[in-house]
Amino acid sequence: MFLTKEEKRMLEGKYGNAVKKSMEILVALGNIFGAKRLIPVKSVQISGVSYDNLGDAGIEFLSEMAKDGKVVVPTTLNPAGMDLENWKKLGISKEFAKKQKIILDIFAKMGVNITCTCTPYLVGNKPGVGDHIAWGESSAVTYSNSVLGARTNKEGGPSSLASALTGRTPEYGYHLDKNRKPVVLVKIEADLKNEIDFGALGKVLGEKLKGKVPLIKGIKKASTEELKSLSASIVTYGGAPLFHIKGITPEKFRDPKKEIIIKRKDIDEAIKDMNDKIEEVDLVFVGCPHCTLNEIKKISELLKDKKVNKELWICVSRKIKKISDKKGYSKTIESAGAKFACDTCPIVAPLKGRFKAIATNSAKGVFYNRNKNNFKTFFATLEDCIELAVRK
Ligand code: F3S
Questions:
Q1: Domain boundaries in the chain?
Q2: Is there an atom of ligand 1 within 6 Å of 79 CB?
Q3: pTM of the complete model
Q4: Is residue 351 in contact with ligand 1, taking CB distance under 6 Å?
Q5: Domain 5-177 has what CATH class?
Q6: Whose CA is nearest to atom 5 of ligand 1?
Q7: How far apart, in whole angstroms, are the C-alpha atoms of residue 13 and residue 28?
Q8: How far apart are CA 224 and CA 139, in angstroms?
Q9: Measured from the CB, is residue 125 less than 6 Å from ligand 1?
Q10: Could you tell me the CATH superfamily of domain 283-390?
């Protein structure tokens, strides 16, 4: 792989040990994937931030990098293993909280913006069409590639940190025009009504296309929330972290020759498949990916003058929560007994064994709660999830 004079100096250790290690990671990755060179990135999102994923070995690696490493581009974090302020209320142990705080302090020492969210594009880290970035969380990667037209591969924890410390990434995969071209035309012959229809579409496409980039036709409009839902599920269920929708996403292409048709029955079957036989749900959670302000507003309207009868967690970035506080939505929501889970989510938090069955409006949430937490799942719209939480 070609390296500039400066990059060679970085690799030789002239800019310190963290930069040297980072360059070694990026060059190794570039060589594996046949990259010809490194390219500059405008922003980074680091995933694998929870102590649940990192463990003590991860803390050791990060401490080593933080000895002389400083980020050189705007960098945020994926959700951590707990709400940084409200962890006690959400039942997180003191020992876990201590370790999680150590991790975040190390990131802060390196100059990382301690915004822990999978929707950085809702809180100021919103790349534009053609911007090269190095993001880690799969739904954020898919949303930025597809809806925003930015360019990123799905980076792991070490490679995204390496990009943050050097401002570079190897040029391969979705950074290149040739890999962004759709290869399957998907004709939607169904009216998609809400976020769970879009989540179910992601499941159907992820499973059918197995990594092939689709050009989707037949969707007339889609809200941010619906596109967020599709972005999260398509990649979770085996799809590429990139899709195009005619008339909605920014990149333009000719129709590919190979085509598939998706009908209402495909969507309905996917929804049915995400619903287990459940006697009782003990956790309702929404906000996977993290809620938009619109969703928070809707939840506050649905909870007005009501009380929840189950644990109801609302996952959201701290910045959106603060706006919600100012607008008065948080007060209504908390008065009803619901809990905000800022900076975190039930998938990266240590929840295994605490609940048996969850309700969610997220197809991605269904996948991980089944496979990581062994919970049974009820998949329903935001309205139905809130209704279930208040039902006696
Ligand atoms: Fe975000 Fe956690 Fe879902 S990181 S996309 S809320 S699994």
A1: 5-177, 181-273, 283-390
A2: yes
A3: 0.96
A4: no
A5: alpha beta
A6: 289
A7: 16
A8: 13
A9: no
A10: Aconitase, domain 3 (3.30.499.10)
